[in-house]
Sequence to fold (1639 residues):
Amino acid sequence: MEEDASLFPKKLLDDAPLTEDETDELEDPEFVLGSVPGEAENKADPGSSCPGKEQDADKRKQSPAVQDRTQASLLRRDLSHLDQLHEEKDLFIQKTRAELRACRRGMGPLAKQQERWAAGLAAEGAAGNTAAVGRLEAASQRLCSELGNERDLQAKMTAVPQESVSAMWHIEIQERQLEDARKSARAEAPAARKCLREKGASGKAERNRLLRVRRSVYLQKEHGLRHQKLVEDAQKNHRKAVKFLKASLGRIREQERREELETREHTRRRMDAVLALKNSISANRETLRKFQEWGQAKAELAEQKAQAEKEVILAQGGDAFKHFCHQRRRQELEAQNRAFEEEQKLRKHEIVSRILKEEAEEDRRKQRPSPPRPAGRPILRDQTWSYVAAFHAGKSTVEPPCCPPPDVPGGRPCLALEQLREGRSALPQASLLVKTVSSESIQADGGSLGREAGTLVQPEIPGLWKEDYKLYQVPKEDMEQKPVGGRKMDKDILACTVQRLRSGVVHKQVASRREFRGCPFNSKPKLIHFKDFDIGKVYKKKITLINATYTINYCKLVGVEESLRDFIHIDFDPPGPMSAGMSCEVRVTFKPMVNKDLEGNVSFLAQTGRFSVPLKCSAKKCSLSLNKELIDFGSYVVGETASRTITLTNLGALGTRFRFLLASECCEMDTSPSVFNTSSSFTYEDKGFYSKVATSFSEQLTAGNESVPADVPSRKESGKPDTKEKEEGRPAESEGATLTTIETVPPNEGQTELSLGEITEGEIGPFSSIKVPVIFTPIVPGTVSTRFKVVFKNQLCPTLYFKVIGVAIDVPVWVPKPNVDLKICMYDRLYQDSILIRTRSKAALRLKFEVCEGLRGHLTLLPKTGCVQALSSCSVRLKFLPRRSLPEDAGKYFDKESRVLEAPVTIRVADQIKPVGFTVHAIVTTSDLELSPSGVDFGYCTIYEAVRTQVSLCNHSLLPQEFGFVGLPKFVDIQPSDGFGTILPLETLQLDVIFQPTKAKEYNFELVCKSEINRCFKLTCRAVVVHPLLELSHYQVKFAATSLYDTSVATLYVINSRLSVNPPTPSVPRIGLEDASPVGPTSFEFLLPPDSPITISPSVGTVWPGKRCLVRVAFRPVLPSELIHQEALQALTKEAEAKLSQKDTATQRKDQRRQSFSMLRLQNRDRLFQASASQTLELQKEDLMPSSQEYQAARATLTRSFQGKFDKFVVPCVVASGDTKDRKGTEPLRFSPHNTVYLELWCPAVAPSVVVTSDKGKTTADFGDIAVGQRGIKKVSIQNISPEGLDLEYSVLNPSGPFVLLKPVSKLASGETRALQLSFSPRESVLAQEMLEVITKRGTLSLALVGTGVASVTTCSIEGGVLNMGYAMAGESTSAGFKLQNNSPLPIKFSVQLDSLSTRSGDQHGLPQFLASPAQRTEVVGTQNYSGQSVFSVVPVQGVMEPGRAQDFTVTFSPDHESLYFSDRLQVVLFEKKISHQILLKGAAREHMMFVEGGDPLDVPVESLTVIPAFHPERRQEAEELKPILVTLVYVQLDTDTPAPPATRELQVGCIRTTQLSPKKTVEFSLDSIASLQHKGFTIEPSKGFVERGQTKTISISWMPPIDFDPDHPLMVSALLQLRGDVKETYKVLLVAQVVTGP
Fold:
């Protein structure tokens, strides 16, 4: 046994596992702890069976038990190992034997092949084939070697099984030796397993305890890390809050500073306004005083002129009193003329209103028949014309005829009537009314009748105004022959007059619901101005009249005012109808005859009213002024001489003589000829203007008492002469001044300190100026003031005054330059100047220079003391170095707001009390350049992008400064001009700082900006650079030009290039200096901007390490909906305005007389129409949807006119570690905002090359609702709007879909329009949508195909599908109706068919229906008429049912013989294909008017072939005698105690409504044997009665079994039912009753 045991190595026996696998999952600690004590109680040793004995055992007995358990476990391990070896050996033996068998099978073929090759070798050797012999020998040798190898393998394989069998024997022996141990092991196995379980439970408990400890440690560590992170976040947030707080406080302080500055500025402006108001009040007081003085002077001058004129008249020997009396009378006469003109106007208005009233009365009289009036009675028109003639006969010098006949020479009635019409069109121009009543005064203004009463104008007809002229008297014969109502000629004249009067009424012009108001024509220029004219010359101007109304208008020249007719001539050719915006030219010629200003208007008449163009003629005038009214010389030392100049300017075109004098001097210059002589010359030139000249003369005499002249001369007229006027003959004026007298004032002892220069008198030309020097020579110290005046030879020019002030001082030392201006200075910069000091003393003087105490640190004079020689000068060096403390040190000498320094410097002279001073002026400014903000935080940025931010560089200095950023890092760039340039004073420049890093880390650096004075200003920058987890293959995508509503697609890759964990290097993905990101799947998401035409797919995804993800970016430009909405609303507004314009145009064509009577009603109607139109437009605006036609049309219009657009989008792509599939539910991944890459998209949009022109440009082909099985065809027109021809291709439509492209177009030339035919054939009731793309090389046009398949749904008013026509008389007809309702949205074409009228080929070989059983009867067509005509007929047979409407059908039942089984089937067929409804038609016919129905059927429902109509009287009598009716009553007997209800049946007795004449109108019925029936349990109600025509009555039959009834034998009784109508009929009613047992 020991030898056998040594055959197995010890290692094989020790490999059996003793414990469970430790990789099991840990259970819940609570569960494990709770379950361990229970298991411990069940532990037991295999050698002990009782717990009591186990407790009493000694410790020494426990050691053998442990050894026994160990030995038992070893034995179990050995047994299991032996079993395993036994199985392996058995399997090995089986495999070896199988291989041995295969080897033996393979050796047989090899031996046979060797034999064949040996035979072949012998044959080839005998044949002498050496090559074959060699080949066969080689093959034979190879086979021999293979056979040898197979034999060796067979020998080895034979030995191996033998060895394995022997080993198997040893194993079996060992197993038998250990059989006892196996049995004991089996007995101890439960205890061992229990021990193992206990040991496993204890191990699990220990592991759970350790796990709890580990978890607590981990939770403590995590809690500490979380607390540390919270502390860090709080500190970071605190830093950010402090930063934002500082920025907020800075903004608040800046705002407060701005508010303070604004308050100061507001206060300063208020102070300036108060000072300006004070100065204005002072100036106004001075001006008022001047006005008063000038008024007094003017009054004195007028009085002097009147006195001088009186002296002149007396000197000439005239009567001054008489002259002045004539003058006063002339003024009174002019006042009377003006009053008379006003009265004339009022009277003319009254006459015109009466004429209009008369026309209105005439119109009303014409509308209603007027009774005949006597011939001699004058009408209202005759009275009016006689009144007008009498009025003018009384008021005028000459009595012209009212309306001369047409045959009178010189008479022009048509012209008079035309001017009367013009007078009606402009009622305010009352002077035109005279033209309507006097054809001789056409060329004269009506307003001049009163003024020119004394003017003898020659009449147009010679001798007409003579005193001996007598009016033509009509003979009495002619008066008697005059017909009633006037002659025909008078009627024609009156009709012509009325027509012209009516046509002359001003027409209102209304366009687009707006009435034109205002001037109908605009004039360019607006004022016709002839300036500075000379008498005798001709001036011409051209104006342009532009039609400013809404529609066509006319223009007619009326003329100019009477005062201008002798000087102004108008050339105007009426252009006829003028459209809106058209223009015409008018030439105005002016020939001046008098040297006087003229003003007036050129009047025109338009269709919409009268308008005029102002005309002004200005004579040459003098416009004189001085450039200053006060000359202040300031302070000058006695003995010095100072000079100032004053300029006298003439802005007028007329020259005059002038003279400068002291205000106290009086000088009379040579005057021009007297006013009286001037007016006389005017009278000689034109006697027609005598009254006007006299008027001006009288106004000149009284001008001093009436008004005060203006202070300042008029300067409105331009100083340059009109070039055009020069070309037309106006001589060029002299621009210089011609001095005719030059006076030199010789010096004398009495000369004043203020005097004039050499030029004090002369002549000033037009548009020129004269400079006169004013000299100040101080003699005595003190203030000197003198007032001068300028007088002119022209009496119309007012005297000008000016004042001169000077101060004389007596100081021997003075500074020629008392104000030293250092201009603009900067702080901490040195500025120098030289001060010159002079002396007039004859002895040397000692000087000491003093600066105020506050400025001694900033301002220095070198040397501080000095000496100036007699009658000489010296210079002092001034040094100015302003410090930053200058505003505080200078105090009142420095204005902090304006930064102006006024530093007084004192020069003290020895032995002189009064010091000499001068002032140093300087504007002190800073040299600071401010960078805002002072620090730039670029935040988090990636290495694949460049971050740009704007920085403001502000120059607080008042001087321009050059600047430049020096020493820039390589990753920073500043633009524009690379950070160099010049900044202007107080200017702020915007600079772009571009940061483009290359490494991931934290950046902190400074940018230095240097100014030209080498001052440095620093800009602090910081950034955290991120190396993102992912990168893009392209960070910028430039799309090609894409058409509207087309799509361009670009592809790019999102790449995860990291494959393995590397040591931290700058190239590893990280955020700043943080730890490197882990390697693994990385997710991304593109965040598109809202309302962008960009689509990215996929927008969210995950990229694994070393992989990349393909991303598709699509760009589809569309028009903004707001723009389309606005265009649609504009189109709707234009359409509404066009409709209103058409309405207004139609209204204007009506007669204006009717408008005057119904104006209020028309206004109300127009108001209502406008309100309704506006409400309609508002509703259309509210209902405007993207699917509406207006919206689609607006989109098509904008698409065709699209000019192109370029947009740039920046799309962020956020990145996060992890896979999107790992997130729980909808929980998003934690994307870091810093780990973001950006994609820049350039999106140019252009107009499409192919557009849709049909259906207002809609790209949606909506077929609408099409019935299922039908076909709809729609044409879509497309146009090529590109400059070249295009080849068209089309996308493939769904072959199984309902849409088909019928006629595709392959080519489309430029500008060509072709139509595409599309069809829609729905196969089911569904909404079908599909896209058809028209593809060209320039873009794609997408057409949306939409259609709805609608099933034809109809409902019938007949329920159950049976229409019973009831009983009818044979040979008569009855009708019934039903309705079909169309519930579908489409019209339905229907047709009605009857089975009796259709072919029935399928039933030709079947049995007759009366021979078939009831279950086999399927024929619905019953008994038919003998005549061959159909029993039933339907109207209408076919038609169309509109959507939502019902169709009424009428069914007529017309039997020709008696039968109870008339039937037919009616089918409603839709669209000739679909059967919608089947209705069974039934009816019965009787030859008599009574019928009985009910009971059980006793015959078949189909007539037999042997049925012959019973027309014979005997057969009819037999039929009338007996007609059986079977009524079966079944009484159901219940098992309960509750009595069962009686069995009940009903019979119907009816009377047919008929048109036949019958002696009886009712049918009487009676049932006999009632008593016997009641004895047997039958109850019949009623037993007798009568029935009206067209009605039925029910006979109720009930049965209750009697007591002696035998249930096994049914009860059968009979009774006779008699009907009496037109005939008598008897029915035998068989009553069969039986009892059945209920459930």
